Amino acid sequence: MSKPVVSVAYHSGYGHTAVLAEAVRTGAVEAGAEVHLIKVDEITEEQWTLLDGSDAIVFGSPTYMGTASGAFHVFAEATSARWATQAWKDKLAAGFTNSGSKSGDKLHTLQFFQILAAQLGMHWVNLGLLPGWNSSTSSEHDLNRLGVFLGAAAQTNVDEGAEAVHKADVATAEHLGRRVAETATVFLAGRAQAA
């Protein structure tokens, strides 16, 4: 059986979200996937074709003013051509985001990704982790330290660069990449069995 193809379609304004995109790629590669990183603000026709051929697409964007960045919204609107032909129907989808505040309304960005995926007929893969850092015996170094279930969420101080992305958030994004790749492997096996 062929390895699953996972594409990470993301925008990064200041480099923090790019760190998470790389982490998603690392996790997916570790789980046996072929992975493509696609910067949506520089997307080419060849990269649109890569997305069309992917088994899973992981959406990523910083959270600005309570939603995905403007550059990501431009990409999302451009997917309407895929919506019209149902080109991405039954692909897997997942998402990740970063903001400066602990909450920063990141949930809204992840919900935006989930609704986008639903409109495109895709199946959403959640984070699949219990929350971390929510008891006296836990710490900020736990996976899913921000307690988000819909996707991978990160928080980075606004006055620090990409090198300051929290290691636990990087590890959580790696977990998401592995989970997406493992789920895609199961989907591919099921489709092969059903054929």
Automatic annotation (TrEMBL):
Tree of life domain: Bacteria
PROSITE patterns reported for this sequence: FLAVODOXIN_LIKE
Pfam families: FMN_red
A GO term from the CC aspect: membrane
GO MF term set: FMN binding; NAD(P)H dehydrogenase (quinone) activity
SUPFAM superfamilies in UniProt: Flavoproteins
InterPro entries per the UniProt record, alphabetical: Flavodoxin/NO_synth, Flavoprotein-like_sf, FMN_Rdtase-like_dom
Flavodoxin-like domain span: 6-151
UniProt xrefs under PANTHER family: FLAVODOXIN-RELATED PROTEIN WRBA-RELATED (PTHR30546), FLAVOPROTEIN-LIKE PROTEIN YCP4-RELATED (PTHR30546:SF23)
Protein name: NADPH-dependent FMN reductase
Organism: Streptomyces griseoruber
